[in-house]
Write a structure and sequence with these properties.
Blueprint: E1 18-22, H1 29-46, E2 50-53, H2 72-86, E3 90-93, H3 97-104, E4 109-112, H4 120-128, E5 132-136, H5 146-154, E6 161-165, E7 168-169, E8 175-176, H6 181-186, E9 191-194, E10 200-201, E11 210-211, H7 216-225, E12 230-236, E13 250-251, H8 255-270
Parallel strand pairs: 1-2, 1-12, 2-3, 3-4, 4-5, 5-6, 6-9, 9-12, 12-13
Antiparallel strand pairs: 7-8, 10-11
């Protein structure tokens, strides 16, 4: 996949990592536009290629009373408005075969959640839209096994595919990032490190996922040093009150400092 195949993506000649970033879920129009405006300003300043991320629905909730969305088409229309307002590409998750065609009308990149990446029909449905497909590595899968998921997309005559590592299960309630997987998966497709989901602490007895946002910069730095192509960082201006994944999201107020440091590290690495 070539990065410039993503519609409206900017700064593709900057020779640094690209960024997928935004809230976990679309909670409303004002919040989405507010977050996008801030991230666009930061990424333009630092010349980082940027894709706005927001889930139009959350199908993978631990509890039945957890927030799942504001309505599919309502959220997708907000994603379209973000794209049109700031002239940037967008990415969202899909969970069912019918989601692929629906979401493809509104966004530029379709993302397959980690726990669904072995679902052949879902991957094929995403690939057949012709959109860029982001395959998240299952928490239960080896880096090597992602070549088969990538092949499914390519066999559908769609070479616009990337893979994302979001950590590997470590016991029942924690995840760990095996950085040996980055060079392995980069052989198959451009590789993204999902920094914030890698710091989740799932399966808590309360039914609400925990997290370690204090470790975001540590994990992100390690990914940048190890030549990851892109970073995935969920962010919100009020993580404590976010409707989904607030426990591991980055406070938007800290994003510019983090990205400034990461760009400096990548430029240093590139000079060797």
């Amino acid at each position: 996949m070539k990065l410039d195949k993503i519609p409206n993506i900017k700064h593709t000649d900057s020779n640094i990592f690209f960024l997928l970033s935004g809230p976990c879920a679309i909670e409303g129009e004002d919040m989405a536009l507010r977050i996008a405006e801030k991230v666009v300003a930061i990424t333009d300043k630092l010349e980082i290629p940027y894709v706005f991320k927001g889930s139009f629905k959350k199908a993978n909730r631990s509890r039945i009373d957890s927030f799942t969305g504001i309505g599919d088409e309502k959220a997708l229309k907000i994603l379209r408005k973000v794209s049109e307002t700031f002239n940037i590409p967008t990415v969202t998750d899909i969970h069912e075969i019918n989601d692929a065609k629906l979401a493809a009308e509104y966004v530029d990149v379709l993302q397959i959640p980690a726990f669904l990446v072995r679902q052949t029909d879902l991957v094929v449905a995403a690939a057949e839209t012709g959109k860029v497909v982001n395959l998240k590595k299952g928490q239960f899968m080896s880096p090597d096994s992602m070549k088969h998921a990538v092949t499914k997309v390519i066999d559908c005559n769609n070479e616009q595919v990337m893979v994302t590592d979001r950590g590997t299960m470590f016991g029942y309630q924690d995840l760990i990032v095996d950085f040996r997987g980055i060079p392995t998966m980069r052989k198959f497709a451009p590789t993204v490190l999902d920094v914030t989901h890698s710091l989740q602490q799932p399966n808590q007895s309360s039914g609400v996922t925990g997290g370690r946002p204090d470790m975001i910069e540590t994990i992100a730095r390690a990914g940048v040093v190890n030549n990851v192509d892109g970073l995935f960082i969920e962010t919100h201006f009020d993580p404590a009150n976010a409707k989904s994944d607030g426990a591991n999201m980055l406070d938007l107020a800290h994003l510019e400092r983090l990205l400034t440091n990461l760009v400096a590290i990548r430029k240093t690495i590139n000079s060797f």
